[in-house]
Amino acid sequence: MSQEICIFCGASDPTRLGLRTAMEEFADGMLQRGWGLVYGGGRVGLMGVAADRIMNGGGRVLGVIPRQLASRELAHSGLTELIEVDSMHARKAIMYESSDAFVAMPGGFGTLDEVMEILTWKQLGIHQKPVVFANIEGYYDAMYEFFQRAQADGLLKAEYVSLCHFTNDVASTLAYLDGHPPSNGRSMTWA
Fold first, then answer.
1. What percent of the chain has pLDDT over 70?
2. pTM of the predicted model, to two decimals?
3. Structural domain tally of the chain?
4. Which of 74, 94, 187, 191 has the greatest count of CB atoms below 10 A from its CB?
């Protein structure tokens, strides 16, 4: 099934080679499945790795970037389509509308901002699209523990925790998305 997968990830180069390798493997898996990439439009860091890999493999890539970042020459010039917007809010709205599923690969503040807003929209019933934390090399262990703590302290209901899914490697991330196409309307399960 052809899907558009939104990847939230870092615009910096990771110090651990395994994180870059995982991004390359994930992009290869997307290409094999005919999935398109929706992402933040940058040419640097893990964002650039994903876009380059998919474009070089003949896939389609939609980048959405705020003008202030594009003007700093961070925009990727070789994409299928690049949309420049006025704000981060507009960026997230277009990425949401253009995507069938969301994957948080390793990243920093921007990655967390984007995935948490998408997860909050799911909590509010705005969508039922899959939301996955790709816990590559244990990157999101602390996030998983935070969700568990918030639930134990009564600040996050169990049904909200189940709106996302954690995977431990590229293969399980791809397999999860294979088994949860966006049209099924099911909520996510907690690993």
1. 94
2. 0.92
3. 1
4. 74
